[in-house]
Q: What sequence folds into this?
């Protein structure tokens, strides 16, 4: 969540992984938990529907 708060833009799972050094599986699990708690919002990229971006839930 700290990575998202320090970023002023939307981040993909890959970008979060490279910034944190966590495995992609850890990033996915963490994002799912944060989404379930309402702390993170998932946005769909309209130019590539397979790719999702994440922002803090309060925005």
A:
């Amino acid at each position: 969540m700290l990575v998202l708060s320090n970023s002023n833009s939307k981040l993909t799972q890959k970008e979060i992984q490279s910034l944190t050094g966590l495995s992609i599986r850890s990033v996915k699990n963490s994002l799912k938990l944060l989404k379930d708690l309402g702390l993170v919002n998932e946005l769909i990229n309209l130019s590539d529907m397979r790719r999702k971006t994440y922002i803090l839930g309060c925005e």
Notes: The longest strand covers residues 40-44. Helices lie at 2-6, 13-20, 24-36. The domain at 2-56 is CATH 1.10.10.10 (Arc Repressor Mutant, subunit A). The chain has a mean pLDDT of 86.
